[in-house]
Amino acid sequence: MDAPTASDARPVYQRIVLKLSGEALAGEGRVGFDPSVLKLVATEVRDVLARGVQVALVVGGGNFIRGADLSKRLGIDEVTAHTMGILATVINGLALMDAMEQIGLVVRVMSSVEMHQVAEPYIRRRALRHLEKGRVAIFVAGTGSPYFSTDTAAALRAIEIGADALLMAKGVAGVYDKDPREHPDAVMYTHLEHMDILNRDLRVMDATAAALCKDNNMDIVVFDVTRSGNITRAVLGEAIGTLVGNRR
Questions:
Q1: How far apart are alpha carbons 171 and 156 in whole angstroms?
Q2: Distance between CA 173 and CA 178 in Å, rounded?
Q3: Going by C-beta distance under 8 Å and a sequence separation of 6 or more, which residues neighbour residue 190?
Q4: pLDDT tens per residue across span 187-216
Q5: Which of 144, 141, 145, 197 is nearest to 168 (CA)?
Q6: Mean pLDDT, range 85-113, rounded to an integer
Q7: How many Cβ atoms from other residues are within 10 Å of residue 155's Cβ?
Q8: CA 9 to chain centre
Q9: Range with the lowest mean pLDDT among 2-11, 109-118, 138-147?
């Protein structure tokens, strides 16, 4: 019997939350959007949907504004600066929506901050209905509150909607013992437990997000989103990046 091909392989996760950092959307430009990254994400989400997987996304805003940095550099009130960062995630969510709609996907942007002319309000049952109908749900505006990162929002939404895994799509290959952009000898981990994130202070995500995932036994897969096919590989359970959890 022939071995199954990638196209025949069954997903190990049936419902996912894909967390996209703003920096990943910017590509090498670091600011704004890289159209090739938007197109790549949209195309791979379409492939994952075709395999019967339900897909929700949470997007950061670091390619435009990081609230804490803005407050330190310019002296802007910290709550105001965080709120500006929250609004930056909405811009990214709309960009992703457009990229996906251009290739025929049905998308709903859902915001934790009310803005009825731009996005639906985030309502858990409505989000679940969208996913069950094969729509992509893009969750923007973080948790709606300052001081909570979009990593925490991603962990929270993944738990709320009963996702099987949180896929952390970044601009690096996985989780390293130190920043690989500054240290050429950095070593990448292929597997970690949830407590490793907290005990080793690995900065995969903030401590609140890591604790939420640990308490709810949520698989986390950290990988390089800019490499074509990686979102699909993560959903299929292939050995890419760093797995935090037990499955695979």
A1: 22
A2: 13
A3: 174, 239, 242, 243
A4: 999 999 999 988 888 888 889 999 999 999
A5: 197
A6: 97
A7: 30
A8: 23
A9: 2-11
- The pLDDT of residue 179 is above 90: no
Topology adopted by domain 15-244:
Carbamate kinase (3.40.1160)
For every residue of 143-186, DSSP letters joined together read TSSTT--HHHHHHHHHHHTT-SEEEEEESSSSEESS-TTT-TT-
User: In terms of Cα–Cα distance, which of 24, 89, 18, 25 is closest to 54?
Assistant: 18
In angstroms, rounded to a whole number, what is the distance separating the alpha carbons of residues 115 and 119? 6
**Cα dihedral 79, 220, 26, 55 sign:** negative
Question: What is the three-class DSSP state of 44?
Answer: helix
77-83's contacts with Cβ under 8 Å and 24+ in sequence apart are: 78/146, 79/146, 82/146, 82/147, 83/146
Backbone angles phi, psi at 191, to 5 degrees: -145, 135
Q: Which two tokens stand for residue 247?
A: 């499955």
Say which residues have a Cβ less than 8 Å from residue 71's Cβ, sequence separation at least 6: 77, 78, 81, 82
Structure tokens at 211: 């604790």
| pLDDT band (50, 70, 90) for residue 24 | confident
Q: Report the C-alpha gap between 135 and 179 in whole angstroms.
A: 36
Domain edges within the chain: 15-244
Neighbours of 72 (CB within 10 A): 12
Query: What is the rounded distance in angstroms from the CA atom of residue 122 to the CA atom of residue 161?
Result: 12
Strand order in the sheet with 107-111: 120-121, 107-111, 136-140, 54-59, 15-20, 165-170, 219-224, 242-244, 191-192
Residue 188's DSSP bridge partners are 176
Q: Is the pLDDT of residue 248 over 80?
A: no
